[in-house]
C-alpha cells in the first residue's frame, strides 16, 4: 500500500477522486490476489467469478469498511480480507438479481451480464461460489492474524444476518413482489433498508468492530451507515431516471418500464433529491464526535449525492 | 435430548434404525428452532426455506457431524448448530441443482421442487438465504458458548472451502459440463469427490474439530469421511438405476435419460456395488483405533451400502 494511505490523520481537504481511485486500486489488487491459485478449479466457474468480480465496480462497500476501521484508529490493510468479502457478497447479489427469473438484465457495468456470457447455470453457480468464498475469507484467521477471533466471528455473523433473508435477500424478495403493485413509501423504505441498506451499513460496522471501536463510536458509525445506505438507493433511483447510460454502463428508464417502485415515482424527482440531501447531511452530522480522521467518510457521503454512475 | 443419546459408550449392537430416527428427530427439532422468529421476514421466502429444509431429508450430514463429535469425547448438543448449518448448505445445493437452468427436476423427496411451488426467482433466493443462514449459524458464538472461537472459525472456513468452487460448487460445474460427454472414471471420481464427497467429509471433520479431536483421530475420521462420501455417491447412482421411486420420492432412470455420467454406466452395476462395498469396508477399517464409541459411525457406513432411499 502506498505510504500516503497509511497515515491516520488525513488532511481534511484531501482529493476524494484520488482517494477513491487509490482505494479502489487497493481493493482490486486484493481481490485479484484472493482469486489466484484457481488452477484446480473447473476453468469456467473461475472465469465467471473473475468476469463479474473484476468488472470495475466502484468498491463502495470495501472502501467504507476500510475507512471505518481507520476512523476508530485501525489499519486498512488489517481488514482488507473482510472488505474483499463484502464486495464478493455484493457481486453475487448482482449476478443473481440479473438472472432471467429475477430482473432479467442483459447489461451490467457496461458489459453483458454473467448469464448472457456463461449461461444461466454457470451464473447461478458463480453467485453461489462468490457468496461461499466470501465466508471463507471472513473466517480465515491466518489472513487476519492481528484480529481477535471473537471479533472475526461477530463480524461474520453480522454480515450473514445483513446478507440473508432478514436483510439483503429479504429485500430482494420484497422488491420482486412489489413490482407492478401499488406500494407506499413505508414499504419502499423497508425494501431498501434491507436490499441495499443492510449491506452498506454492515460494511461500516464491520470495519469499526474489527478495529476495536467502542460502543459510542460504533453507534455513531451505524447511524451514518443507515443514512448513507438509504441516500445511496435514492440516488440510484434518480440515476435510473436521468443518469447517463454511457457513464452508468447500463440502460436508464428500466425501473419505470418494469413498473418498479422507486423514490422518484412515489415522491417526484425534486423531493427525492431533497430527501437524499437531507439524509447525507444527517449522516455527516452523525460523525460530529470524530476528528479529521472522518474526512473520508464525510466526503464519501457527499459523493453519494453527486455521483454520476 | 433423550438421556439414552447422551452416553458416550453406546452399546455396539444398538439399533441403527432407532438411532437414525432419534438423531433425525433431534436435528429436525433444532432446524425448526432455528427457523423460528421469522415474523419479520417476507412470508414467501420463509415458507420456501421451510418447505425445502423441513421436507424430511435423512439428515446424514448433521448426524455424521454429531457422531464425529461424540466419537472423540464431545457432546452432540454442543455442535448441533453446526450440524444444522451443514443441512442448510446441503438443502440450498439441492434447491439450486433442481432449477430449470441446472438439472430441471420437478420432484424431490416426494414433493414438487421449490421452483415448481414458489417460482424460479423465490427458489434461487431461498437457496441463497439458506446458504447465508448456514454461515450465520456457524459464526453465532452465543449458540455454542463452550467452543473456543478459534475452532468455530476454523470449522466455518473449512466448510466454506468444501462448499465453494473448490468443492461442492466446483463439482456441480464439472457434473453439468460432463453431461453427454465421454467421461472417464478419473473425472467421475473428481466430480464426486467435490460434489458430494467434500461436504460429507467436512461434516465429520467439523464435529471432530469442534470437540477438540487430536491430529491422529482427525486424520482417521477424515479418511473415513472421504471413503463413505464416495460410497454414498456410488450407492446413489445405483439407486437411480434400480431404486424404488416410491421410496426415493423421485423418479429413477433420470441419470441415463439425461446422458449423465454415473458409476453404473461406466463400470456396470455389479462392479459399482463391489466398489461401494470395498469403500465401506475401508471406511470402517479407518476407525480401527476407536473403541465402541465408533459403533454409530461403523453402522452408518454399513447403512450407506444398504439404504433403499
Q: Which key terms come to mind for this protein?
A:
homodimer; 309 residues; two-stranded antiparallel ribbon; 15 helices; disordered N terminus
CATH architecture of chain A: Orthogonal Bundle
The average pLDDT score of chain A comes to 90
**What is the number of beta strands of chain A?**
2
What is the H/E order of chain A? HHHHEEHHHHHHHHHHH
Give the low-pLDDT segments of chain A.
1-10
Overall tally of structural domains of chain A: 1
The CATH topology annotation of chain A reads as Farnesyl Diphosphate Synthase
Please count the helical segments of chain A.
15
What is the level 1 CATH name of chain A? Mainly Alpha
Q: Whole-Å distance between the termini of chain A?
A: 26 Å
Helix content of chain A: 55-70%
CATH H level of chain A: which superfamily? Farnesyl Diphosphate Synthase
Widest β-sheet, arrangement of strands of chain A = 1-2
Radius of gyration of chain A from the CA trace? 19 Å
Oligomer: homodimer
Helix/strand structural class of chain A: mainly alpha
Strand content of chain A: under 5%
Biggest interface goes to: A-B, 51 and 51 residues
Structure commentary:
Two copies of one chain form a homodimer. Chain A is 67% helix and 1% strand. With 309 residues, the first copy, chain A, is an all-alpha fold. Chain A has one domain: Farnesyl Diphosphate Synthase, CATH 1.10.600.10. A two-stranded antiparallel ribbon of chain A has the order 1-2. In chain A, a hairpin with a 2-residue loop joins strand 1 (107-108) and strand 2. In chain A, helix 2 crosses helix 6 and helix 4 packs antiparallel against helix 6. Chain A starts with 15 loop residues before the first helix and ends with a helix. In chain A, 53% of the residues are buried. The model of chain A is unreliable at 1-10 (pLDDT under 50).
Amino acid at each position: 500500500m502506498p505510504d500516503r494511505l497509511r497515515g491516520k490523520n488525513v488532511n481534511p481537504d484531501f482529493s476524494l477522486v484520488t482517494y477513491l481511485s487509490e482505494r479502489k486500486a487497493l481493493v482490486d489488487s486484493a481481490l485479484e490476489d484472493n482469486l489466484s491459485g484457481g488452477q484446480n478449479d473447473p476453468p469456467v466457474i473461475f472465469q465467471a467469478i473473475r468476469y463479474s468480480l473484476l468488472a470495475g465496480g466502484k468498491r463502495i462497500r470495501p472502501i467504507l469498511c476500510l475507512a471505518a476501521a481507520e476512523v476508530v484508529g485501525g489499519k486498512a490493510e488489517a481488514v482488507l480480507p473482510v472488505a474483499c468479502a463484502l464486495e464478493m457478497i455484493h457481486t453475487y447479489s448482482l449476478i443473481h438479481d440479473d438472472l432471467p427469473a429475477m430482473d432479467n438484465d442483459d447489461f451490467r457495468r457496461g458489459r453483458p451480464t454473467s448469464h448472457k456470457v456463461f449461461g444461466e447455470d454457470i451464473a447461478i453457480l458463480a453467485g453461489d461460489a462468490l457468496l461461499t468464498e466470501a465466508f471463507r475469507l471472513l473466517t480465515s484467521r491466518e489472513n487476519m492474524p492481528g484480529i481477535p477471533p471473537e471479533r472475526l466471528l461477530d463480524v461474520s455473523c453480522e454480515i450473514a444476518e445483513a446478507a440473508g433473508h432478514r436483510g439483503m435477500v429479504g429485500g430482494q424478495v420484497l422488491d420482486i413482489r412489489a413490482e407492478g403493485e401499488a406500494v407506499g413509501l413505508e414499504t419502499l423504505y423497508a425494501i431498501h433498508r434491507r436490499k441495499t441498506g443492510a449491506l452498506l451499513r454492515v460494511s461500516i460496522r464491520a470495519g469499526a468492530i474489527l478495529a476495536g471501536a467502542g460502543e459510542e463510536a460504533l453507534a455513531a458509525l451505524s447511524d451514518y451507515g443507515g443514512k448513507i445506505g438509504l441516500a445511496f438507493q435514492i440516488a440510484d433511483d434518480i440515476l435510473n431516471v436521468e443518469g447517463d447510460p454511457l457513464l452508468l454502463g447500463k440502460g436508464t428508464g428500466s425501473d419505470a418500464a418494469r413498473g418498479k417502485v422507486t423514490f422518484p415515482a412515489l415522491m417526484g424527482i425534486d423531493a427525492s433529491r431533497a430527501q437524499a440531501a437531507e439524509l447525507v447531511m444527517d449522516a455527516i452530522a452523525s460523525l460530529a464526535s470524530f476528528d479529521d480522521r472522518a474526512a473520508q467518510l464525510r466526503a464519501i457521503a457527499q459523493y453519494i449525492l453527486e455521483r454520476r454512475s
